[in-house]
Amino acid sequence: MPHQPIDLFDLDGTLVKGNTSFHFFLYLLRKGILPMRSLFRAGALFFTFKRKWISLLQFHCDVFRVFLKGRKKALFIDAVEPFLDIWLEKWLDRPLVEQAIGEKILLSSAPDFLVGPIARRLNIKRWKASEYGVDDQGNFSEIIKIVDGEEKLRWARTLAQASRIDAYSDSDDDLPLLLWAGKVYVVRPNRRLRKIARQKGWQEV
């Protein structure tokens, strides 16, 4: 019996048209879970990352230190489902979800407490996301794993028996995975990925 084909999806900017973590952050501000003074610090971090002045890993480390470390995980978990009720369908790229005919797998650097519920709502059985540890009081205490492009590739290699493995992404941060995948689809690509996609003949959708 042939192995099932697989479609690997990035989340932010690909499966959804925005940045899930940033919109969740804005939701937490509106609900008073995070203080409004956090907005300036978030904007500065996001700007430096978008300008490629810091790496994806450094960006996640800075975000964790500033907004998560020492705060109750339960406060964030309790807010996820109400946030997704409002946000997900509005920002989801539904045609992209429906075009994939293989098993959909979600690989994202976003926090697992956001990616897991999104995967369940989309009936995606397998997913991988960044993980954060908690202390004895239930407060965020450490970064366990950041799912960057290299980690996505390491995880994807465990699926090598599939009949095909295609990948969808918007960012050159995923290049390790994209250069390995069978067929690549770039979705709203950033400038560098669009340039590489044209050189490689990757399809833009």
Write the layout of secondary structure elements.
Elements: E1 6-9, H1 20-30, H2 38-50, H3 56-68, H4 73-91, H5 94-99, E2 103-111, H6 112-121, E3 126-134, E4 140-145, H7 149-156, E5 165-169, H8 175-178, E6 184-186, H9 191-200, E7 203-204
Parallel strand pairs: 1-2, 1-5, 2-3, 5-6, 6-7
Antiparallel strand pairs: 3-4
Give a count of the beta strands, DSSP E runs of length 2 or more: 7
Overall average pLDDT: 93
Give the termini distance in whole angstroms: 31 Å
Q: How many alpha or pi helices?
A: 9
- How helical, in percent, are the residues? 40-55%
Provide the gyration radius in Å. 17 Å
- DSSP strand content: 15-25%
Q: Please summarize the sheet with the most strands.
A: 7 strands, mixed
What spatial form do the alpha-carbon principal axes imply?
A: globular
Could you describe the 3D structure shown?
The chain has 205 residues and is of the alpha/beta class. 46% of the residues lie in helices and 19% in strands. Helix 2 packs antiparallel against helix 3 and helix 4 (73-91) packs across helix 6. It has a seven-stranded mixed sheet with strand order 4-3-2-1-5-6-7. It contains nine helices and seven strands, in the order βαααααβαββαβαβαβ. The protein has helices spanning 20-30, 38-50, 56-68, 73-91, 94-99, 112-121, 149-156, 175-178, 191-200, and strands at 6-9, 103-111, 126-134, 140-145, 165-169, 184-186, 203-204.
